Design the sequence.
């Protein structure tokens, strides 16, 4: 009789787990600013890129699925960029910390990511590759944000950005900042 009861309870348990997962996703949307839309259905800020007084304002998020909300964006060469990065995930920083590292045009992202994996004590920012970094945020845990300001490179082209936490770039946490002629 106990086995019958256990088998009967299993579908209820699985259904309850599914509901929890949906709630978790909704919570991440709210953390990313989706609640401002009324439905909470947007996973990214309503307008993640804007220009105010000549400064490109970028609102970027990273989540527990190892994805940025932006895969690419453009800025004018030599312009000011203000990036606010928020880790909207819920997993602990030691397991799922995120940052954003903008590399120079000639940098080898794979070599950088390999070196970063060995730079745990420096929050995965390898000192030997400092000359290949345009700018970077702090490594963030769940719910944390960091705002950085930097000048876009003068040379037009594509500049890769990535999360330097081990394996995150390979899981999809990478994108392109295109620097355009003014």
Sequence:
């Amino acid at each position: 009789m106990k086995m019958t009861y256990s088998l009967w309870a299993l579908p209820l348990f699985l259904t309850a787990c599914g509901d929890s997962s949906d709630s978790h996703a909704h919570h991440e949307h709210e953390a990313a600013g989706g609640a401002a839309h009324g439905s909470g259905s947007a996973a990214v800020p309503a307008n993640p890129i804007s220009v105010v007084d000549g400064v490109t304002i970028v609102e970027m998020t990273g989540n527990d699925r190892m994805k940025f909300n932006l895969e690419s964006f453009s800025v004018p060469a030599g312009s000011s960029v203000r990036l606010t990065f928020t880790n909207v995930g819920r997993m602990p920083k030691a397991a799922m910390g995120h940052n954003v590292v903008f590399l120079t045009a000639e940098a080898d992202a794979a070599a950088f990511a390999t070196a970063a994996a060995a730079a745990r004590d420096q929050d995965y920012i390898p000192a030997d590759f400092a000359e290949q970094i345009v700018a970077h945020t702090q490594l963030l845990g769940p719910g944390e944000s960091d705002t950085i300001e930097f000048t876009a490179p003068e040379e037009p082209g594509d500049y890769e950005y990535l999360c330097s936490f081990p394996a995150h770039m390979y899981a999809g946490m990478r994108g392109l900042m295109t620097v355009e002629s003014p």
